[in-house]
Amino acid sequence: MMDNNKKKIKFNIYIFFVIAASVFGLMMSLIIPVSQVPDEYTHFELMLRAYGAEKMYGEDLNEFFRPSGLDSFNSGDIRPVDGNAYMDNGMKSYSEGLFGYGFKPGITAVRFIPQAVGFFAGVLLRLPILICHQLGELTALIFYILICLIALKKMPFKKEVLMFIMLMPMAMQEAGSFSPDVTVNALSFLITAMIFDFKTREKKVGWKEMIIFALMTGVVLVAKEIYILVAFGIFIVPLDRFSLMIGKKFDLAQFIKKYKILFIVILAAIAVTLGILCRDFRYVKILYASVLQPGRSYLLFKNTLLGYKDFYLQTMVGSFGWLDSGVSYTFVTIFFMMLFYVNLFQSKKSIELQEDFTIGNRIYLVLLSGMMFVFIFISMVSWSFFLAGFNLDVGVAEFRAYLYQIDYMLGVQGRYFIPFLPMLCISLGRGNEAASTKRYTIVQACYYVLSIVLVLRILFIRYWG
User: How confident is the model at residue 3 (pLDDT cuts 50, 70, 90)?
Assistant: First the structure.
């Protein structure tokens, strides 16, 4: 018989996340050849340009990518990797040291910091090209796991929902890659968790946390501008929850509360001013054109969603390599059933912590998520214009005319929705108390095992035969 005095083994969500993310992310990084994550070939080049080391890309291309066949790997013939060529050419080292390539980071370098740490450390140590790439992917994965772990600890309720999205196959593929999605996804999750933490906790929010929040928002803005809207979720937090003291007597938060109307007018004026100053930017012109042609924009949006809805679902859940080896639609269905399940049931404590999270707050965050969803499509209209051969250095009037010469908003992938997915899902319902915590945990664990095994099988078949 078991000793009744023995302590029961308690499920630790943080340890589980670290183990699952480490196994899943590391295996995906090793199995997927370098440059084969969606758009990674381009992202790697963008990273080198951001750090002023674009000369290195030519050496990668001539010494590693081309001899290994990776530069033409996605030309239509689905074939496995030549392992011998991949390893032999990957074991060549760069001909010059790090600073011999003109290493000069620019402002856009911040979106590639996680990958740059490992990659350029490898270059500095004169390690083989393949090892440098793998080190870059490894440090990206470590960054993703650490930031997501902090987010998971910060999240006051529905931690299972946040973890579920963090561990979704598409997010984990990006986590160990050269994509700026590593930075955007991780920081967006942490920003979301901090907003919910600010909303529900008793302790006041001070300058230190607001500065960290602002810095993370700034990095997201540089990485992918559209996701700065995630930070706008902070407006659900009452000003009474802040303590922004300047000196010993002046509280900025209370001052803003007192003159709230004035600050709203100031923010509106700033928004209008920025809109005017940025009116010649391509994405701003597309936004103006779309707003001025609401009927045509709606029709394009409708056509795109109806025509590509299956593609968006699959590329959000898991479509690997250059989107040529996705999970089955059966798995996509299981994924959404599980997402519904973890969102439907919660612990009693998790439900109690949502008392201050009002219906108004939920509606605001759902609308904010919807705005990001729409803006993502509008921002990618430029890709449709580019494919059609249109001149993009023209004014709003020409862009309005272009809208009538395309049939779809092309270029959007399902992974673009991941950064605001936690905000959307957590806002959709309060959840019901799980009848059995043990069963609730076991069901999730079984799903994660299934997910990892299935994805690794797909990747082995696709790349290594």
Answer: very low
Identify the pLDDT of residue 5.
45
Helix-helix angle 329-344:159-166, to 10 degrees: 160
**What is the three-class DSSP state of 388?**
coil
Average pLDDT over residues 262-272: 86
- The C-alpha atoms of residue 455 and residue 32 are separated, in whole angstroms, by 11
Considering only the C-alpha atoms of the chain, give the largest distance between any 2 of them, rounded to a whole number of Å: 81
What is the pLDDT, as a whole number, of residue 6? 45
Comparing C-alpha atoms, which of 383, 330, 377, 361 is closest to residue 429?
A: 361
Share of residues in the chain with pLDDT > 90 (%): 48
Say how far residue 373 (Cα) sits from the centre of its chain.
Answer: 13
Cα 439 from Cα 34, distance rounded (Å): 39
Which neighbouring-strand residues pair with 250?
246
How wide is the angle at C-alpha 368 spanned by C-alphas 366 and 371, nearest 5°? Answer: 110
Q: Which of 243-247, 372-376, 390-394 has the highest mean pLDDT?
A: 372-376
Q: What does the alpha-carbon distance between residue 258 and residue 207 come to, in Å, rounded to a whole number?
A: 19
User: Tens of pLDDT along 351-361?
Assistant: 888 888 889 99
225-257: b or e for each residue (b if 16 or more CB lie within 10 Å)?
ebbbbbbbbbebbebebbebeeeeeebebeeee
Residues 6+ apart with CB under 8 A from 210: 242, 244
CA dihedral sign, ordered 23, 28, 30, 31: positive
pLDDT at 1 (0 to 100): 37
Q: What are phi and psi of 396, to 5 degrees?
A: -65, -35
